[in-house]
Fold each of these.
Amino acid sequence: MAASFFGPQKNTNVRVGLPAVCFVWQIAMVVLFGVFIRYDEESDTHWVEFRRENNITSDIENDFYFRYPSFQDVHVMIFVGFGFLMTFLKRYSYGGVGFNFLIAAFGLQWALLMQGWFHSLNPETGKITIGVESLINADFCCAGSLIAFGALLGKVSPVQTLVVALFGVTLFAVEEYIILDLLHCRDAGGSMVIHCFGGYYGLAISWVLYRPNLHLSKRFHGAVYHSDLFAMIGTLYLWMYWPSFNSAITDHGDGQHRTAINTYLALASSVLTTVAISSMSKKGGKLDMVHIQNATLAGGVAMGTAAEFMIQPYGALIVGFCVGIISTFGYLFVTPFLEKYLKLQDTCGVHNLHAVPGMLGGFIGAITAAAATEAVYGAEGLRNTFDFEGEFENRTPGTQGGFQAAGTCVSIAFGLVGGVCVGFILRFPIWADPGDDNCFDDEVYWELPEDEEIVPPVLEYNNHMIHKHQEISESNFSVDQS
Amino acid sequence: MAASFFGPQKNTNVRVGLPAVCFVWQIAMVVLFGVFIRYDEESDTHWVEFRRENNITSDIENDFYFRYPSFQDVHVMIFVGFGFLMTFLKRYSYGGVGFNFLIAAFGLQWALLMQGWFHSLNPETGKITIGVESLINADFCCAGSLIAFGALLGKVSPVQTLVVALFGVTLFAVEEYIILDLLHCRDAGGSMVIHCFGGYYGLAISWVLYRPNLHLSKRFHGAVYHSDLFAMIGTLYLWMYWPSFNSAITDHGDGQHRTAINTYLALASSVLTTVAISSMSKKGGKLDMVHIQNATLAGGVAMGTAAEFMIQPYGALIVGFCVGIISTFGYLFVTPFLEKYLKLQDTCGVHNLHAVPGMLGGFIGAITAAAATEAVYGAEGLRNTFDFEGEFENRTPGTQGGFQAAGTCVSIAFGLVGGVCVGFILRFPIWADPGDDNCFDDEVYWELPEDEEIVPPVLEYNNHMIHKHQEISESNFSVDQS
Amino acid sequence: MAASFFGPQKNTNVRVGLPAVCFVWQIAMVVLFGVFIRYDEESDTHWVEFRRENNITSDIENDFYFRYPSFQDVHVMIFVGFGFLMTFLKRYSYGGVGFNFLIAAFGLQWALLMQGWFHSLNPETGKITIGVESLINADFCCAGSLIAFGALLGKVSPVQTLVVALFGVTLFAVEEYIILDLLHCRDAGGSMVIHCFGGYYGLAISWVLYRPNLHLSKRFHGAVYHSDLFAMIGTLYLWMYWPSFNSAITDHGDGQHRTAINTYLALASSVLTTVAISSMSKKGGKLDMVHIQNATLAGGVAMGTAAEFMIQPYGALIVGFCVGIISTFGYLFVTPFLEKYLKLQDTCGVHNLHAVPGMLGGFIGAITAAAATEAVYGAEGLRNTFDFEGEFENRTPGTQGGFQAAGTCVSIAFGLVGGVCVGFILRFPIWADPGDDNCFDDEVYWELPEDEEIVPPVLEYNNHMIHKHQEISESNFSVDQS
């Protein structure tokens, strides 16, 4: 078919490539974990001795109890939140949720190693020790690549998604090290390191992989009624658990508490402005599911940095108010513009949900940090919140604000440059990506059931008739089934 | 069309009204939060000083760690539980989950203010301080309006739902203040203040908004196979997390622990009696999804007040046993009766799931309270459980029982009277509500995808054929797509 | 119909049997709970005195705060995880999620009694006292029967599923007592007592209930596109919360912490090898949803015993690596083999997901235990981890390993022998099970909506046309609806 008009049909066979990559990379993980990774003192059986030595009075002070509920919420966001948000396409729901599952499962292992080498390698023993906070960070690190996958959804092969994750996690660990350790920024919920980086990383890859004939897959590009409902599962889990996402690794006590409150408020505010703009933009004021599914979440993204600061509840509402508007405008005007004039195809609109709100979140964080005063935070509170300790003891909030802004720029740069490089790697003709007329179609990489709308109706109609009218003779039926 | 038989078709255009309400109300929230709302001492950076002053030994004693996991469960119940439970209609799933999302997002902000003014306004500073318990209470407060929305599902415009939430939250805060503060009732899980109030509030509104020609929308009134499965997601999340709902704001320690156990047991018991009655009522003993989706939850509603008392595990089972039966009977006989003879259209049957079980829960709470003895609770336990402190130091369990019963009556009265008033407000012809022949139809307020069953089959069938038989020439296909 | 070819159609009327069983059993539960079950000291109002007597400094040390978040995750796994995983069949989704709900709701009550009698009956008072750990154990106990239900899915009546649960819970409590108390095995996540037992129990029942003419229901045996997506909800919740499942009842502190980490890693590793084998097995490297939905979970099953030991992170990865392969091979080759040569019909493939990985998990636990040394665990850590206290004070790790292996054999024996016995009970012709041509069909036990694919398309198409072309006269429409 495709041969007659478009030249030889693309080879989308991944029967060698996908198993090979999965096996080789997983074996590499086993070996590297064997060499490097051990339990930390809170998850090791020596905890009982550690407790005694450090005068910890109760097991409940194990970091596990501070962070595990948030960890599980983050875990749900990564696998159900991101996964189901990407089921909105009528015939790419398996790919959305399934490849998300695959790359997150690989990415979190690689993230434990990469983040471990940069942040918690013990120089004496040569080991990385992990605990519940490492698991949360590994999930965070995957999120960057999953965001990038959102821009590429339906246009890449599963092998390519794994490559995106491999380099995405690697780049993430480096930029995170620069931003958090060298620049000493605070970014608990990852506006900069996760969303801004992940968004621009995905956009840059997508730009390099531009498909001029993507309209040939137009028949698959869109939702059906129930696929939009599946996507709402993803949206709601992201929305509900975002307070846990932003607060998962903030300071014990007031840090986690305040971050959760701020995020909760910013998200609520986003919903109302998203609905307002969505309704204004359509004939009859009808709402668009794409906006509801995505722009309502922008408040969480934009609060990723500032949520742990004393931005005040009304500050959180203002942030949500503005980014809800900006994000919805993005879906209405910017995504079509990018596709038409910048040759940038962004399936899930990560530009509007992650890249821009993430960047804004970075700058909001910078401003909030620069505006911090001892009067509001208290001397001790200021020191704790911004970690003005050790070599950073004398840093002022103003300086901190400058560094926060610089950090945002670093994350954009890493996303764009890294994405372009990875994009070129993905253009090698070895990855079994789909042809322009086969995008957004699960048929390419999945065994599909004979579906209700296609073949079964005839049979099911018959069965139904048989159920209803028992007088129809069985012989007819048997012929049908044979 | 409608013009020829029913007069001019109703104007359902919300393009001005919906954005206007969203913007104005959200701006009002920002201003009011700016004036009134601040962090409490456990979410403020001064926590470290507060800890020292109050001899709190560890960050883990921040209220956040007592309540945050339960808060997140409650949050899931509000957005996924209520939201997906209302997706059961074949063509109103977007409206069910989407408007639920909208009104909860607005309602929780307004609730923080209303509940703050009544319960935690500091007279010296003029500020309301909020923490995780405030967030839980705000979610609870929304629940009342979401329950009312259940009775109205499919028959109101999004602007009307916001009005329902605005007045619902306001009324809630007042009745809650009367019941909990003035009458000094205990109602941790809100049998009275949430379910009984919310149920009667919705029923009264629906009664005022009676639509004599609702049968014109009959074609949309019912489920399809997969919409019932989406609704089961809502059911199960409500069912599973109800122990968290009831225990979220009970006393630290044994209070939360006991409440969770009682609720868990009552819910389990409801399931069996619901199945029994549902099966008995139909030919061949077939089960009805409406009963399974709703009546199984009645045990949680009915335990909302008594769950924190020493009702004993078998007491919880008995409560669940009885309300499972009553609720299923309600769906079988009372809802049709109400519609036929009382002109009361109750889309989700909130009468059977919230109003009646909530009212019963209030009285069960009253009886359990009246039966409390020092022998069972211990002197200290009795005092803690019923807060017999301060001006209520000398109240006896018997008196407490009387006040609990009075509280239930207050909640019914508030629901009915408030609902009738709000109903009349909603009858003004300015709200762009759907016509009688357009109810239960997402087409009115949502941009819908061209759906699989309607237009696509022809195309998809073609695509399928092309996939299967590659010999079909591309030219044909191009014509199809053009 | 069926009469003409297959003799008289089977009686599937459960209108007497199902309500009778539900009522009688639920009343029995009420009575038995009344006689036996009370709150334990951490959920009783006397907790405040208990705290003082035991010098517990804070309410946060109530076991509730150690275990409740994990309990809720386990609860989600039981009801949404297992429930939705079984919605994959195109026309048995109601039965999958609904009967799962029913038997778990009964099973957990019966489990509280059975486990209470064996583990926590106070000989002085004759009472069983329950707390949050009892609720977790009750959920675990149900899991065994739900696994068995997976093998029988679509082939049994709801009454039979309740019988499976009644005996399943009973057998579970006995084998658990033997394995955990008499043999003093450790099995926190239940590789042996839950998965291995439940898997073989279901397989044995299914073997006895072999249906030679099951091919007559072939038209219902398979998925449709959206039913597979519903099943993915189940898969992901099981996958995400499995760390909570395995760690829910392990030791406070490092025990829960380490178990969660190990399970998280094993599961991640399973995903990659499952994808690899699934892709290798199909033409074009296409992935099979059955494998992704099931075999990705094998890592959690196989880590059920060893996760709390010092298996090290790379050990967890190796376990996940191997069982992902084994489980996928099972779906590809063993299930068809069992059906063809052993006359064993296993609807969900519990052989590959529970029986074999559970058995392997038991032996992995035995080996890990036998390899434990004081050098790795520390003297105190070794004692705590394996509970080498009281009469087991002098047990060595080597001996412990032997007992762990013996425990695995006990669970297999209980599953197989118990399952055969229960299977024969279920063959009595009184249970209203479906005929061979009616399996996997919700029509038999559920009131079904007139579905989108069957009747509505004509109507909906009309409605759609009316919406689009308002010139079509209303009179036409009214005729359609009448």
Note: The two ends of chain A are 31 Å apart (CA to CA).
Amino acid sequence: MMELAIKKADVLIEALPYIQAFKGSIVLLKVGGSVMEVPENLENLLVDIAFMNAVGIKVVLVHGGGKAISRGMLNAGIESEFVNGLRVTCDKSIKVVESVIKDEVNANVVSILKKHKAMACSLHGDEIFVVEKKTDVHHESGRVLDWGYVGLPVNVLTEKVFKMIDAGIIPVVTPLGRCANGELYNINADTAAAALAKAMKVSKLVFVSDVPGLLMDVHDHETLLHSLRISSLQKLKESGVVGGGMLPKLDSCVEAIEAGVGKVHLVDGRMSHSLLLEIFTKQGVGTEIISDE
Amino acid sequence: MMELAIKKADVLIEALPYIQAFKGSIVLLKVGGSVMEVPENLENLLVDIAFMNAVGIKVVLVHGGGKAISRGMLNAGIESEFVNGLRVTCDKSIKVVESVIKDEVNANVVSILKKHKAMACSLHGDEIFVVEKKTDVHHESGRVLDWGYVGLPVNVLTEKVFKMIDAGIIPVVTPLGRCANGELYNINADTAAAALAKAMKVSKLVFVSDVPGLLMDVHDHETLLHSLRISSLQKLKESGVVGGGMLPKLDSCVEAIEAGVGKVHLVDGRMSHSLLLEIFTKQGVGTEIISDE
Amino acid sequence: MMELAIKKADVLIEALPYIQAFKGSIVLLKVGGSVMEVPENLENLLVDIAFMNAVGIKVVLVHGGGKAISRGMLNAGIESEFVNGLRVTCDKSIKVVESVIKDEVNANVVSILKKHKAMACSLHGDEIFVVEKKTDVHHESGRVLDWGYVGLPVNVLTEKVFKMIDAGIIPVVTPLGRCANGELYNINADTAAAALAKAMKVSKLVFVSDVPGLLMDVHDHETLLHSLRISSLQKLKESGVVGGGMLPKLDSCVEAIEAGVGKVHLVDGRMSHSLLLEIFTKQGVGTEIISDE
Amino acid sequence: MMELAIKKADVLIEALPYIQAFKGSIVLLKVGGSVMEVPENLENLLVDIAFMNAVGIKVVLVHGGGKAISRGMLNAGIESEFVNGLRVTCDKSIKVVESVIKDEVNANVVSILKKHKAMACSLHGDEIFVVEKKTDVHHESGRVLDWGYVGLPVNVLTEKVFKMIDAGIIPVVTPLGRCANGELYNINADTAAAALAKAMKVSKLVFVSDVPGLLMDVHDHETLLHSLRISSLQKLKESGVVGGGMLPKLDSCVEAIEAGVGKVHLVDGRMSHSLLLEIFTKQGVGTEIISDE
Amino acid sequence: MMELAIKKADVLIEALPYIQAFKGSIVLLKVGGSVMEVPENLENLLVDIAFMNAVGIKVVLVHGGGKAISRGMLNAGIESEFVNGLRVTCDKSIKVVESVIKDEVNANVVSILKKHKAMACSLHGDEIFVVEKKTDVHHESGRVLDWGYVGLPVNVLTEKVFKMIDAGIIPVVTPLGRCANGELYNINADTAAAALAKAMKVSKLVFVSDVPGLLMDVHDHETLLHSLRISSLQKLKESGVVGGGMLPKLDSCVEAIEAGVGKVHLVDGRMSHSLLLEIFTKQGVGTEIISDE
Amino acid sequence: MMELAIKKADVLIEALPYIQAFKGSIVLLKVGGSVMEVPENLENLLVDIAFMNAVGIKVVLVHGGGKAISRGMLNAGIESEFVNGLRVTCDKSIKVVESVIKDEVNANVVSILKKHKAMACSLHGDEIFVVEKKTDVHHESGRVLDWGYVGLPVNVLTEKVFKMIDAGIIPVVTPLGRCANGELYNINADTAAAALAKAMKVSKLVFVSDVPGLLMDVHDHETLLHSLRISSLQKLKESGVVGGGMLPKLDSCVEAIEAGVGKVHLVDGRMSHSLLLEIFTKQGVGTEIISDE
């Protein structure tokens, strides 16, 4: 028993320099929809966040809601349509999106955080994101795509977020926004997280998703890159090593760092307490991306 | 390795409710001279204190300096004299006491805390304790004992202590005081710690010494009392179970709790990281004494 | 149009001394379940609360959920049982109560406040109320009543509430609590509000319900008492003028004032913006109860 | 009566979004001498300011004193001399200016604000404005004009102003300044207001004077421009539509906005509570000038 | 010159322990009307106050206005009437009192403080003192005396005073008050100062008047008492040594100390910089009265 | 005696405008090793610093330790080696440097400040300076010089310094640093002071050394320059008037001012209380260097 006790103490002591380094700093976490599907993964992750909050890190959490929304659509008899991996959102869909992401997904996250004694408060994206309708030209066909009620953040009202984190509260943010005429829009959760991280110039932006980080070879976990500079990232992209579904996320990493965010982490939300281990122990378990300077 | 990582996470998560409960509260630690004699014990203890500081506990540290002072006396060619276990302090002795406890003992404690990245600052007792000369009548002979420059705190100037802990600094306090005419006095370190704890109405007062806590049978560690109320303590004393060298310390425990201190802990400084384990894990390793209400 | 403008200005100016008097003070509002049944009444009331928040009053809101819970019971196939007007709560019921009051009622209140740009955050009673099981002896039969999971607050953890109101956030509190062994209990919402008001020593405690205030003759609105001292209240009770369903509420008014709450108001939530008019205009529309001094 | 009550509530509710938007922001008001001549206008205006202060707007007030100074001159037997509409101030005049504007005009404003329970405090310009003597070359004659003790602000000591508004106090500022050698100078009140607004980077600068705002046709109130960008203002000037006495004021509007002031308003001080209506209702009654971005 | 420089340094160093001891503490100064009659004395005194403010003492100043008011009465053709040394104040008188004490005396004090770069702000007594009409029974005749508009403070609204001193501003307070019906009353300045000192529990209350302090023999300055406890004061009164005009002032000293004021000083305002010398040098020049404990 | 008292008052009053001007501003003092050799000079200087701290100036103290270190080297049997006036620091030397400068020199400074009731706390350079090894090319020989453990600050962690000065504590800083691999380095104390001054953008940087300031003719004290702009300094250098040992110090003056430091002062630490006189009296006794604007 004595031995066990000493091992426990060793773990706490190992965490000490990380706690000292990060307390008082702002960490923005984007939690992907897939992580939220497995209740145990989600709860483990939120306990990690409660821990970060308890040791004085100012955590902001932005979450998606992918599968829950698709289920909500199904229940409402609306067919889901995706272009370039992004949900096209008609006027019926946006009501389902709002209802599901606010009343189910967000409420659940807040409730689990409260269960673990963290002060958490839902802060819906439409309270802080001012958006414009997303209108892209399709690369191949050249026609203008109509994403419906999908918005791009053009302004972020950070005052409420700062008030909350300064009071020790974790704001749990939904990826919604409002455009000038007051209409509600859906925002891609990665985009919302990156926009908020940039507006707040946070110390760390962490994407928690269902990949282990950045792999040189996606089939071999041993090829995980633990740390790389954005210039190296650029080279990897050019050499074609990194690609596919990771590309948009990596682009927002680069964009965020260039806008003043300190570091970006990619963490695997399927692994138990990966966030805690990435932040508070020597064996970081994901990939960190840092500026060149 | 994965398994190890999960165990690490478990220890951090186990600490979470304790961190949540104690952050922002004031804990006053009295570290006895004997603990300070073994460098490894002292360093382990101070790392624990750095951890407490890092997670937002406001730590105040009062230390003694027994053996270092005796060595200093020897070097200065002064014979140490004790009455009822308390050092009689002549005018030559008090100079040695001041020099040893400030420049050696206190400086060493501050230096180790800084090494572990805690903001620590020496705060000498003569900056905060106003004392009167201790004058007791000897129980047997009836004569008034002359302890020389041994003082009893009659007033504690807590303003500087509060300023420091509010700025995140650990005040490292020497058990000295000054009487109205400006003369420097030695104070028994337990007495100094209890006086400061009472004046600040701290949440916890922890005595770290070279005993494992309160034992029903001093020869059997299995008889350690983990938690008891002051009324029970009274009964144990009356029944003669507790006695000897522990009596004065227990009296100051009772006095402190009656003056508004939340809890008193007795922790064994010889055991590695006992303080951390007592405060942040389920298996408390010492004795806690609480009020009857 | 000019005339209209001047009238508008007059109303704002009339509100000025009330804003000056109440800004910075804490007002605890208990909103009864019946008020929450009529969406328009509820929204009007919450807009009033957003106004109070905007002019610097620190509002805390405690709400009941009577009819919504009864509907939830019905849906779950549990029969509602009442003793002395208080819901008996079995182990199945408490799950329904928690789910309905948190996920429906509370979420709805928070959502409407946010719609009107007030920073609001749900704060569930089990985060702040420590309860003991309610066990009364029935007056007539002499047998001990078993209310099931109905608790009485024995301790209120006000720290989170103060943090929120100091950050400009309206805490929206559910009448739940947890006893020492961690079990969830239901609390009568009036009791919860009064306990919180006492623990926080608020300036005003306002009961918003479906009565116009205190009437000398319940059938004649012209007999509304605008202001009375608690000693007069005592006399009215003794003379039998006031009685019936109002008695328990009036008892908690008296108890709250005796515990240091400044004033208690009874306001009619069915009347449009009655709260705003009671607080910010000359024509108070409910009853205020004040101490004798 | 019920109907009246509801109308009152409607006015307060209409003001809600404006209060939410402006609380905590700094608004600098310049009140022209002509407005101050009519006691009723002045009192109405100051009540509006007390209202703004009460709902959490940080108001700074700079006032002129034109006619009162001219009367003071007359009493002192000094002839008033104006060049380009600006008072030439000899060494006798500056004494009269100081006495009248401090002891009469400023004292009166502070006194009325206090009467309406606003915390107000006189802050004389010579405490905050460092000036240089104004020396212009006359456009026609080419000779250097000697304005006497008329100064141009070259530095503004904003620390005291910020301390006051952060303590909830309205600083009431006289348009005076001191040059390096300690001599007192008169400053044009519009110039002083604009200089202070720029130095503090206030959210709004409001000129309250005896014109209804910016009119396309000065003889037709229906041609009032409610909102225009500074680029449009430039075009109006070039086209000759706007001109005459308004030009210098409009130039300081442009200059202020270019230096970081959020918005400039022109409000008619002769109209009862025009300020309140401009700030807190849908029907703004003056002209607002905003940046092009 | 070198020698002079060293002497200068010595004076500053002598002041050091006094500055260290008093910074952050609240000192309430009552300045009597007679001191204010001699411009040089008044200016010297106010420079001393500016110094106290500069080194971090929180100064509150209450002033009388005796002779200026009498002159004002004379100008207004009203005869001054005194009973027991207190001005009887009819309805015409109270208007003169208000005008003279606010617009002349108070404005002058604020203006001189500002000249010496202290942030000062007039705070009229009617903003903070709630009074009741003074009604005494005459000792000899037994009839109830009618003092007219002379009030006794029954409540003191200290919030504004604390806001000002916390912002580094010196509140300059006139001895006026308002009773429940809104009527303005005159208050004896000693009484007002003592009431405010008690309500704020200040560290020091200093009466600056035209006596050198407390003398054993009023004809011999060498008999000045530098320091005495309130019990000794009692004995002096009983023995008849102290008496006459000093009695009421000494009674308010005793009352203030018993209500929690730390110390009371009597300082001679006719002596140049006596206040500075009393507070910041070894040679105190007046009398200090302290509690018995 | 009366006359003496008045003179004392005059000195305090003379200091008033300087106290008003400097309170709240940050002053960084570099105290050279030679000044620290004469105990009386050091104590006088530290009393001056205690005074500055007491009147609200935020003092940061960086000290060297030249001669004490040389003595320490001698005792340890290590020969001191200097290149271009800078100590070459081998691996044995750096241990001696650390021990002497922390345990002797710094401890002594802190102890004297505490004796004079100033809150002071040692803050070792290795807690705040991140350094790189100094590697210069020798001007004449062209070879790369190896200074050993001599570092140049590349980053300064100012957070702890700001926390201390905001809590009223004087940080007493040793000129040490740590490079990325954790090794301890010595830093030239002038360089350390200038780097910290730049990182904190302090109002004043004061070099206290054993020269009277900047002299046109080093042999004639009458040629002391009291104030000069950095452009003039440049000209003096070019004309060869200023040169020799002063050059490196003057270069860091220029660099500091260009990086945003308000003013740099050169003060003679051998003259009693020169610092106090330079800061708080009309007769500044050293040289001040200011920017050209």
Note: The mean pLDDT of chain E is 89.
